[in-house]
Amino acid sequence: MNAGDKLVTLQTLDPIYVDFTLPQQQLAGLAVGQVVNLSVDTFPGQSFSGKINAISPKVDAATRNVQIEATIANPKQVLLPGMFANVKIDIGGTQERLTLPSTAVTYNPYGSTVYVVKPAEPPKAGAPATPGAPAPRPPPMPRASRSSWPSRSSSRPARRAATRSPSSRAWKPARWW
Question: Is-cis flag, bond preceding 138, omega within 30?
């Protein structure tokens, strides 16, 4: 042994300090005393909570990140120095969002449209039909006999249209019914 050699490393396990970095864009949503939640792979499904106790006043010029320090209560001393941890900070309230595939959106010049299909409610007894419900079919019409169709020998005049013959440049009338 020589003078100045390390004999023992002293660590504080309760509370334990967590050092992590965040991008500078997140700095506006941070404050000392804000709650953090920590999870480690050693204890899946278990969460540890603590508070931010220091935010570095300097932004790292190379990464544009800010150093943060949080204190986590560790009464059972299960968290150890050097463990990898996932830190979550709640910045703002939860927001409910609707996500859907882009193929469900109909794009039109007057705006985008999404159709929502909802199950129909059962009709109430004696209530009129609901809008959007198919109308009852009318009774079938009797088929017309061929003798009731108009014939070519009817007294009405033939309709005329102008066509051009491919062999001549003159326009001549054509007959069509």
Answer: no
Confidence of residue 52 (pLDDT cuts 50, 70, 90): very high
89-95 mean pLDDT: 77
Is 132 inside any structural domain? no
Closest by alpha carbon to 53, among 63, 40, 67?
67
Closest CA to 69 of 54, 84, 91, 51: 54
Identify whether the C-beta of residue 49 lies closer than 8 Å to the C-beta of residue 72.
yes
> pTM of the prediction?
0.48
Q: Is residue 37 part of a domain?
A: yes
Give the CATH number, domain containing residue 34. 2.40.30.170
- Whether 73 is in a domain gets the answer yes
- Report the first-to-last Cα separation within the chain, whole angstroms: 118
Residue with tokens 């278990």: 46
